[in-house]
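TA notes. Do not distribute before section.
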Amino acid sequence: MENTRYGLLIDYEFCTGCHTCETACKVEHGFETGLWGIQLKEIGPQQIGPRKWDWHYLPAPTALCDLCADRVAEGRWPTCVHHCQAQVIEYGPVEELAARMDKQFMVLYTPTA
């Protein structure tokens, strides 16, 4: 299926904020200081009730993300997926990933063609 689009499904409910995806991407692509292919964003902390807080980390691909085209062409996963310690980033066909979106804190990244 040559026309299959691929993307990243990110379940940020369990992202620990370790920055491994950022670091692995930066090393893989040799990005200079201040440039990122994926960048960890912090959402919160926000108090949403007595003794209840909302605080998440969201790995956010940037315009420089090419889904590690060279690695994928070799049959390997994108480096952020490979190195994610919490295993919250998945790579695959967009249609399959979209079907797996069954939780509140998930995002699907699909680069423009």
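Switch to the second chain here.
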Amino acid sequence: MWGKVLGTIFGFLFGRWLGAILGFYLGHMFDRSIKQNFDKVGGFQSLFKGEEVSERQALFFYTCFSVMGHIAKSNGRVSEIHIKAAGVFMDEMQLQGESRQEAQDAFRAGKSNDFAYKETLDEFKQRFRGRFDLLQLFLEIQIQMAFCDGVLSDNEKALLQQAAKTLGFSSSHFAFILKRYQAEFKFNQQRQQFHGKYNNQQRQTSNAQSAMDREQALAVLGVSQDANAAEIKKAYRKLMGQHHPDKLVSQGLPQHLMEVAKRKSQDIQAAYEYLKKNPA
């Protein structure tokens, strides 16, 4: 609004009514640009500190682990693989002491028969409305839990689809995210195989990338087999922007979950580097 007001005033001072009209138009364009950038970084989120941010991060933390527990229980009982996966996830976040206990309590709450799955997701959506990248990361984390054993059961998929719909994602976008994660899962398996063979980090990364075939790398970036270099680069930049840790934290991501965003960024980077070195 202020862009239009100031543009009109200054335009009138320098060019009378013709200048005012031109100033109004330029001010309108300025307002649109500012609003787009403002919304992109989370609106007024960057102006709030302390308690409000802490509450938002606490809600993300609780919802993340409680929904994970609910999905893990969807087949009747929580398997040892799911329990181990939850523990590994907590290790990755470097949760210890009280923070780890809170995560475990939330996970157990999600496993209970009276857990309000839909209501929990509804509240989560309301608090993080408009923060697409953060909501997408949340959904990716839930897919990670469901797919930790390499299999996605019908019950798990149904719950994930319900979560995606509640959070505002279309069925086609959910399928896109799911396909990307399945490729990411295979990529991580390959990297783990190389982890014990190479002490030098550079050699390890190089060999892990060599193990990736082109089809898998393209799937990690979410592009088709016939994608050209420009399309691959565009997809890479978009995904890197969506998973930038600092941006996600500014939108309400708990600091503990920064490592998750960093790992996803590393996977995206590795896939892109592979495709640059192995063009079609």
